[in-house]
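Consortium newsletter contribution from the modelling node. Members have asked for a concrete example of what our holo predictions look like. Here is one, prepared for the zinc ion complex that several groups have been discussing at recent meetings.
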Amino acid sequence: MYKKKRKVKKKVIFLGIGVILFIVLIIVAINLYAHFTSNEYKLEQIGYNEKEITDILELDNKYISYALENEYDNDLIPLTSEKWFIWDKYKNYKNYIKDLEEQPTTDKIDYEDVITKVNTKTNYKYYTHTTETNMNLGNAILVNKYYSLPEQYAPDDIVDVPTTYAFEGIQTKKEVYEAFKEMADAAKEDGITLIINSGYRTYEYQKNVYDQYESANGQEYADSYAARPDFSEHQSGLALDIVTYGMTMDNFEDSDTYKWLVNNCTDYGFILRYPKGKEEITGYAYESWHYRYLGKELAKKVEKSGLTFDEYYAYYLDKE
Ligand SMILES: [Zn+2]
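And here is the predicted structure:
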């Protein structure tokens, strides 16, 4: 009687242990399965180290998928960490990095520079890889050495600027004139006189200027002194060269007028288009007198970003 009970007890204990072992085994199996199918494990197999794996798994899903589906890529983390990184340009960044790495002078990749150059196309020579700018953007169109106006473009709302606001014979788009008038009137109240020195320039005008430089000293020289026709912001009717009486363009930078302009122009929809230190990006020497009309809202946004309009355009406006 007792013996039988003890036997049953033993059976129960064995059964219990068996069940526990089985459960433990299942758990171990699940964990192993989870490990070998985890992104961590896969990334490790691709060649990423622990630090890189942690970084990658903190990225957006599309970058994680890229890392999982491609060979080891040591540029992934540094590129995606850059503030102005654009995912759609990933291939372009990689191609440019490859070009740089093939140059014997490169010892370290400057990722910030790669991003800036590729975003603005300045990794290419000026006037190569050009496209016609997207005119649907209105005041936000980009016109530079890579983005042209439509062939022989002429705006249809050009007005004459009265000589109270400009030198003789100056024209610009109506909206730009209205904005300039508002700005010049406000400046006047602060004792500052703003005068437009150059506004809208026709295709023919720009072509003449460029051709003269070119026939005298060749294309390279012409390109460094004048924009090619259809590639000048002045032809868009959205750019103004602003000066004041009694100043040349060379010393305009030292004037109170310039200081006023730089501090106030975005309130009226203008930006200083070719800032100092950004010559490589804009493709133009620093011009303290050249202002681009963008409209108040956009001008403020560009100013706040701290970017040139070329960079801002690439990051925020260029949706191909
Ligand atoms: Zn200008």
